[in-house]
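To fix ideas, we reproduce below a protein record of this kind.
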Amino acid sequence: MTRTPYILIFVLIFSTCRLFAQGELKDYQEAEKWLWNNIESKIYKSNIYPNWIGKGDSLWYSTKTRKGTEYFLVDIKNKKQQELFDHQKMSEILSSYTGKELKSYGLKLKSIKLKNQKELDFRLDTFLLSVDLVSYNVSKRDQPKKYTNQELVSPNKKKVAFIKDYNLFLKDGNEEKQLTNDGNEELSYGTSISWYFVRNESKNQKMEYEIDAYWSPDSRYLICAKYNRKHTQKLFMYQSKPKDGFRAEVYSYERPIAGDKDLTRVSYVIFDTETGKTIDCDLPENATFLEYGFQWKSNTKAYTLRYYRGYQKRELIEVDVESGTSRPIVSEVADTYVDPNMHIYKVNKDADDVIWSSEKDGWHHIYRYDYASGEFKNQITKGEFVVREICKVDYKKKKIYFRANGNEKGDPYYTYLYSINFDGSGMKLLSPENAYHTCKISPNGKYVFDNYSRIDLPDQFVVRSAKNGKTIMDVAKTDIDDILKMGWKAPEMYKVKGRDNETDIYGVIYRPFNFDASKSYPVIDGTYSGPQTIRTPKTFRGGLVNMDVPMAQIGFVVVTVDGLGSAFRSKKFHDVSYKNLGDIGAPDHIKAIKDLAKKYPYMDTNNVGIYGHSAGGYDATHALLTHPDFYKVGVSSAGNHDHRSAKAWWPELYMGFPAEKHYDEQSNFFLADQLEGKLLMVHGNMDNNVNPAASIRMADELIKANKDFELILLPGKDHGTCYYDKYFIRKRWDFFVNYLMHKQAPKEFKIN
């Protein structure tokens, strides 16, 4: 009788080892093979982009082949493809010219321009060269005059506007003139700041401004932004690993956060550079992140797109630069938000039509307005589908070429190319293959360069007719022979019902390539619930080059789910996340994983983890705090744990303005005492997208609640380099092996 417990313990230990037999050194080694830096070298004829020649009867492209980098010429009229030039001859003459040994299929030519298919202009390192493709004679081209980010040359190349000491200046020939005199640090002219610029406060680094101004087509008028920084606020970072010395340095960057009332604002001043007259534009000051710059309808009429705090209104506005007066052309409001991430509009200087997209009928569609009067003309596209891109507007034929998803059978996220007349008639499918299509239309409107793929279909590159969609010629197919030999298997696409038991929800399942259905596998939810996009890949590269494939090789089943509130479906579907980012799609994620586990019993729903970056980092932590009965382990990187901790535009778009109590209710800071599972947080300490203070403050709240967790701050890493940091990748693998697989991870595995 006394032996029974020992037998039971032995059985349990044996079962555990059998259940989770992976997570060992060999699995880490296999996972490493599938990381982006290794797998990129194993695929060929991928990432092909067309460069149209002249009107578009031919094009050239470059791509990585098994030989190296190859350049090709595609003659569409004659349905022929050949090398753009003799690679051997080209390498020989360029080696001789530069004094460097260059390989035939290792030429890194930039800024290529083919003239008459006989002369090739390009940049090679610091050389600007031209090569005659008949004689292969090389000639040097003159370096064009370079302008700094503080300068803006006029269209006729005769004038240069520039900023200096917070003021605007004009150089006209040899004459230099100061256009403003009252600029200062608080009220300055043309002084835009790059999103990526961070200032070293410790060394009193000089601000790096970029000119924000717009020349009229005839080079007479200049619209200049006037920045009001009286109430500008900054975010700060602590660089613990300076380039020189041992003293840590403080960096800052100009950034409003959600709900800020004190922030940088911008208005506009117009300069007539012929008369010297200054004209005030009557557009009121607006937050800088809501402005989209100016374009020109004519020499005296400019237009701009403007949003307002909370993103419930947008306007297309015309400005008369002779008087400075403005008028709205198209104005749109919504109870939730008008989405700048979906919006498309087209204005042509020679046409009266404004092509405008909107979700006002419940789906993202194309509409037409009259530019002069602002009157609504007609809705161009209709139906339960989503317009994603306007590829070309043919104003002469009154035809639009556009990509949309949801109008064909199958995966509603696959985009297809269509054409349609301005009046909404004659909608025609031009890319019929069941796949995700990206398309480029030739300048003459005759041809379409179509790149289509699925996660189980390598990229296909074809040229088709823009008239009827028929394939004219095959250009290339991605070569995946190497990864097939490595054992690659396509992930599985799936469809389940969402939380309402009615709405179809889509995602992907990644399994280990040595998958054994007789075993049991912990499940990891790869998450990103930011409403501007989806997490599930739809292209071949997206399904191959990611963090999910390597993670699965460790011994996990990795699942992606695009739940209610995510992008590219109906407005109703999308609006589930409005003022509700704390939902994180979790009810759909949990139901999807449980439903899949009924079909696939090897998915162990008692051991479910979750990981994500940025908004996905918020998700991973939030899932552990709000659904501890389901999610047991989470890895959160660069998480915006409170939507007031990073920037203003993104949360104010999806959470609204002002930042009221719902921000508190959905903040991870205020839920810290609910942590039950195992949590690892990671953040780069130089992240100026999601400030590292978000994770540090989250750690403080967890400490106050006396919760166990782990935090890694990566010195010198920003938002992107944190995600791709190899030490972090290994620590993420370790964390899931230790706490989800309940095994000891290989000690200090080094990813090369």
Q: What stands out?
A: The CA atoms of residues 633 and 736 lie 7 Å apart.
